[in-house]
Amino acid sequence: MLQTIPIDQVKEALDQFSKGQKYLYNTLTTTIKENQTNEIWFIHLLDELRDNVDLFENINEQFLDFLQLQIDWTRQSKTVLDTFRAFQINLISCNTKHAQRYLSFLFTIFTISEPSTNHLPLHDFAHETLQQLVLIVPLASTLLCPIAEQHFPFMTKEINLQISYVKNLLRSLSYLSIQRLRFLEIILSKLLRLDVHASRQDIIREEKSSIESELVFSLEQLDTNDNNTNGMKHDQADKLDCLMFVMFEYINSICIENGTVNYEQTKSLFRDLLNIFNKILLPTHDSSHVQFLLFYICSFHTDFSDEFMNNCWKTFVSPSVSMTFRQSSICYLCSLIARAKYITIRSVLNITQLMVDWLHAYVSTTETNSGNANPNRHLPFYAICQAVLYIFIYRHQEIARLPDGIEITLQWRIGRIISSELNPLKYCLPAITLRFAQLARNYQIVFCYSIIETNNRYSLPETFSTNDYHNVNLPSNILYSYFPFDPYVLKRSLIFIQPIYNDYRDENDDSNIGKDSDDNDRQEIDDSEDVLTSMMMSTTPGSSDSLDHLPITTMSTSFKNSRNPPSVLPFGRSPGFRNAIN
Q1: I need a labelling partner for 208 at 20 to 30 A (CA). Which of 137, 159, 311, 489 fits?
Q2: 88 near 96, Cβ under 8 Å?
Q3: Backbone angles phi, psi at 501, to 5 degrees
Q4: With contact defined as beta carbons under 8 Å apart, do 310 and 282 qualify?
């Protein structure tokens, strides 16, 4: 039977090691490593170390690193793990400088993937130790967030490591509730990094190419790959899909108890997510999926969706917020209103009325001195004008079903806005402008085609360019347009979003509303069929996929004009405007 190592021998080995003599130390570490599976022997050694923590007062930190990193703790029994915990807690209680090292060790354990659905015993050990350590050493809580962020697996690491780490971070919030905001911020910032590296267009392209390549295989070969149908072909998207699924499950675990929504807990979590949205989501350009966590939690109660929309609106109207953030906030607002099924049509009308009132006030203050001013000064106006058109495109069927829906829309007096000298139809996305023109003509709200044709005559067609550094207007060409709640394309986690998501539907209802055979009344534009094709897609009209279907002449409308148009254009209603629809 292997004899235990006397504590005096351990002390002598450490003393000689500190003097540069490594023979006894190497012998000691080799003996421990070779006999780590001998449970009784290893427990006795750890007990001896626990009773002599003064050995590690100022030196011998390398031996602590050896115990934490060179021992295979996944093979140890619960008794050994409990003994090691007692040793580390006793050590940190005597000298808190060891807390950071031990916390790093615990967070490293979080990355070890679980072999099954059950919790790994080592994970239970890490959580129990972390909970006990924070109670004994309160200052250890100040080290948690930097260490948690430092040990978060890089996005190129295996998905199992990332899932395990995120699950354990979320599990730790059950006893570290004060750290929830910061931990969620760390997790979402990492998810955002994955998100921006897996754009919606790249994911769709990968899926399409994968489907095309699979067509060359026989049905028998396809049957053998059925187990992979739920995965994403895009590597970063597949990781993001799995992590988003974990986050949606966490939201459900916090917000739903016995099949009903726990309002207070949901409100607390929503406030944390809203703070994170203002801090890292709103300033991030071109994220595609992470923001759907807010989209999902807003569906639990109207108070949350109202608060989110109020937050976006306050950001937009705040004069102290940069113009880019103001545009981004209105993009979030209009995209949520257009896509969320849980927002009632009456709420849609009320919010849109608020936008229209702002537009009229803006037009009133600028109509006397706008002239041919630089349109970059009015980007918030163009952004909110496009938002109104966008909302109407997606919710016009529900508005039309209301007894007073079209009447309320007529009270918006959109004609005054689009015929103002600011000329918003010139700078909105062409697909949105043309689709709204078709709907507005059918519902007899306003006639837009004469304005669109006049803009086309006075504008040079240009595509976006990143190589022209001489034209200062080109980066704002047309309008900064970003619709964050465009379709969710991650397969696994889609089940959480699909029931509450409003896809674009074209029931050809507008084609049956009093078609007029007169060509002058129709005011057809050459590319209107292409716009209808793009609108049939589920993505936002004017997105990169939709724009691919448009002729190059409608890809963008430059702020540069071929010749200066008159300050007041001859805008007006169609001479053949039909009677109001019953």
Answers
A1: 159
A2: no
A3: -110, 135
A4: no
C-beta separation of 247 from 293 below 8 A = yes
pLDDT in tens, 244-288: 999 999 999 999 998 899 999 999 999 999 999 999 999 988 889
Q: How many CB atoms lie within 10 A of CB 570?
A: 9
**Calpha distance 317→362 (Å, rounded):** 12
Three-state SS at 460: strand
Range 373-391 burial, b when 16+ CB lie within 10 A, else e: eebeebbbbbbbbbbbbbb
Q: Is the pLDDT of residue 435 over 80?
A: yes
Q: Is 298 helix (H, G, I), strand (E, B) or coil?
A: helix
Q: Where residue 545 falls among pLDDT bands split at 50, 70, 90?
A: very low
Give CA–CA dist 222/174, Å, rounded.
44
Average pLDDT over residues 200-204: 86
Nearest to 415 by CA among 440, 434, 378, 443: 440
Nearest-angstrom CA–CA distance, 482 and 327: 9
Contact 557, 427 (CB under 8 A): yes
**Please, which pLDDT band fits residue 474 given cuts at 50, 70 and 90?**
very low
Residue 209 phi, psi dihedral angles, 5° rounding: -65, -35
The three-state secondary structure class of 260 is strand
**For residues 516-532, average pLDDT:** 39
Cα 543 to chain centroid, rounded: 18
The C-alpha atoms of residue 537 and residue 296 are separated, in whole angstroms, by 23
Angle between helices 302-317 and 323-339 (to 10 degrees): 150
- In the three-class reduction of DSSP (H, G, I as helix; E, B as strand; rest coil), residue 305 is classed as helix
Please choose, from the candidates 541, 544, 483, 242, the residue with its C-alpha nearest in 3D space to the C-alpha of residue 340: 483
Structure tokens at 62: 């390398």
- Tokens representing 474 are 């080109």
Q: What secondary structure, in 3-state letters, does 388-429 show? A: HHHHHHHHHHHHHHCCCHHHHHHCCCHHHHHCCCCCHHHCCC
Average pLDDT of the chain?
Answer: 78
Distance CA(321)–CA(91), nearest Å, equals 50
The H-or-E segment that residue 37 falls in is none
Helix, coil or strand: residue 154: coil
DSSP structure class, residue 119: P
pLDDT above 80 (res 516) = no
Alpha helices in 480-527 (DSSP H): 494-497, 519-522
Start-end of H helices in 95-155: 99-109, 121-136, 141-150
Q: Is the pLDDT of residue 204 over 50?
A: yes
pLDDT above 50 for 524 = no
The pTM of this model reads 0.80
Residue 17 or residue 492, greater confidence: 492
* DSSP 8-state symbol, 138: G
Question: What is the rounded CA–CA span in Å between residue 202 and residue 513?
Answer: 38
